[in-house]
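Form P-L/3: holo structure prediction, ligand zinc ion.
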Amino acid sequence: MQSPKIEQFIQLLSKLPGLGPRQAARLSYHLLDEKKEYREMLAQTIISLTQVKRCAECFQAHEQKTALCLLCASPNRDRSRIMVVEKDMDFSNIERAGVYDGLYYILGGVISPLRPKSQEKLRLRELYNRLSKANGVKEVILATSATPEGDHTARYIEQISEPFVKKNLKITRLGRGLSTGSELEYSDAETFKSAYLNRK
Ligand SMILES: [Zn+2]
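OUTPUT (holo model):
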């Protein structure tokens, strides 16, 4: 190989989800032809990501010096509700809809019944721990997608939450304002609002 640096970059890129070795190579050579300023800015931005961490409670990305993000630390949020979402994007979309004023929990994906290992990557144990410590939480809203994997994940969380349900925790799921088969990520504010108000 002519350039070990490019080779290494391709290898690193191909670890990203959705990027195989071929796409990684295409991207790498594409970057090589970009302006030097752009490449430097990209590199610096990637380095600056090391200063971003995940909130100790909701796992949202934040840059506070504290362990908690601004939302979790805010006195203006309804601390009796936790909404469990699959991905970071879901969290941002729901916040943008401006209907929900409780707390969050970002799971980090869904359990795929066909890929048992998918479960290991999710923050399920951390969710259990949070619920066991969560004083004053009355409702957990499962906002997983209306897909077979989303349903499967919601049922799994219902199972592990049973001890808390016995202590009067209510578990709800978003109503089917979200059409079946749809991922939450793609729902607009109005759709989310009706799904939230129709939760059961
Ligand atoms: Zn947080």
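COMMENT: The mean pLDDT is 91.
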